[in-house]
Predict the 3D structure of the following.
Amino acid sequence: MAAMERWLPALGVAVGLGLMTVAMVAEGQPAPEPSAPEAVSPAAGPGPDGGGPRMRHGWGRHGQGGFWTLAPEQRCKEGYAREAGFLAYLGAKLDLTAPQQPLWDKYHQAMLDSAGKQRQVCLDNAGAPQADVTALARRDHMEKFLTARLDALHATRAPLEALYQSLTPEQRALLDHPRGRGPEPRR
């Protein structure tokens, strides 16, 4: 029972971040970029707990190092830093024209503002002593995470639509699949 009390709060954070990633990918927005090349495999399907993508290698398995072994507060900060870094990378990769740049800036700022709010919800929920977390508290935490994510989707929709309409077909393809489509199929 004690082991369960230790990992349940982390599970709430993991599920929230997993849902955030899945929602961003589903809407065509860039997901946070892992700092290791084999961190997240969205195509791998749900994890064993059913709450987010299954992680591969040492980055995702509890106790093997990487993101999920960080303290909850550090995971909140790391997730935001990864999002900010990936947005900077994507903006540079899009090679925007002068008329497109203000649209990107508006979208980029909306994404950063939303990620900052989600980081704050994460930090607010990360400090609860693990022994005091009840089923009702976990449910409340999940609701806060999901509400923050939904607010982010609403706040970034209009800037994304305006930006998307200004992009060339090549830029749209990059924004639609910011990490590419994966390896070529075998013949």
User: Anything to note?
Assistant: Helices lie at 2-27, 57-60, 72-94, 101-126, 135-166, 169-176.
